[in-house]
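Internal ticket #5521
Category: modeling
Description: The requester needs a full-assembly model to guide mutagenesis choices. All entity lines are attached below as received. Residue total reported by intake: 433.
Assigned to: D.W.
Attached entities:
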Amino acid sequence: MIDSTVLTDNWELYLEGLRNTVLSSLLALIGSFILGTVIAVFRIAPIKILNVFGTAYVEFFRNIPLLLVVYLFFLGLPALHIVMNGFVSGTLGLMIYTSSYIAEAIRAGIQAVSAGQMEAARASGLTYFQAMRHVILPQAMKTVIPPICNQFLNLVKNSSILGVVAGMDLMYFGDIVNADTYDTVSSYAFVSLFYLLLTIPLSLASRGLERRLSRSG
Amino acid sequence: MDFQGAYSPDNLKFLLEGFGLTLCLALLAIVFSFILGSLLGIVRYAKLPIVSQAVGLLVETIRNLPLLLLIFFARFGLPELGISFSPFWAAIVALTAFEAAMIAEIVRSGLNSVEKGLVEAARSSGLSYLQTLRHIVLPLGLRRMVPPIVSQFISLLKDTSLAVIISLAELMHNANIVMGPDSRYVFPILLLIAALYFSVNYALSFVAKRMEARQS
């Protein structure tokens, strides 16, 4: 049923797809972590206009499809004469979309630390930023890491969106192998295998972290 | 940018038809995945020998694959194995399988969150396993499952847009056609379909937030 020659004849294509999937996921992860942290800080900062912006950002990007965000870059920017290839626009779309979820996770984590902690830290002479860094954030990380880990898992799966905009990822090369071999079952079985190789360790790690962090606290 | 041309009556009608199909797709997949996901979740919770492990393996595999791959496979892979669907039903099958795996996990952890003492108390007061499940564990666990299940439905509505790869005439597909090669229509159309997806999802997430607030 599954023909192994589909893999052995095309392993270079699969490897290139795998490499681009990993690269796109890593770039989008780093970008969305930075962007998500900024948005989370906006949402809890004591400045009204930043709160409004942060909330609007999160609500907008969480309630529209990822494909639409990718299209904004892939189809929208060329209308403004800024052309980017599928890999870049797909990765940017992934980054913007995921950052809204990460912002929510970080905000929830910071707010889960009881207000008394901040007051006590401030009363014992730490500045706001010292208190944030040494007291609040280390405690917040405990609740933030598992959902972020989970978002990374989603990100790897969502990176398959690159396949829709010719982003040279696993999904895209799966399509090419399929068109070459006319063997959809085999060519996509190997694509699945490569995705599972990436996602299963991630989901095990996320579960292990969750268990360990909940025990320690 | 040409808003007037993009929003011509013909285009609007065509886009609304796509949105109708999107909603129809989402609704059917919600109903199917809720039923299937609950069953799978309960089977996993029940720890039946072999069956629970088999379901666990299936759920984990599907959860760890991209939905895009499942949609593509349902449309073009399954026919090679002698199972054919129209694009519409292929999308329903893939969406249902994917979201049911997600819901199974939500149901399982919701049921697990019910205190063990309550289960033991119910059992020792003479209720059978199934009675305990039905009268104690399910009602208590279900309340905690509602918010994550609603956000899963929001994901589902957004995920229907992926059916564009099998050329199903849902909103994203019709939007692509209206946009065509003419870049004047790109922003007006992307804006309009963002508004359509957003309005339904925002209403759903509002309901979920209200429910969550009432619970705590």
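Resolution: model delivered.
Comment from assignee: The CA atoms of residues 18 and 79 of chain B lie 26 Å apart.
Ticket closed.
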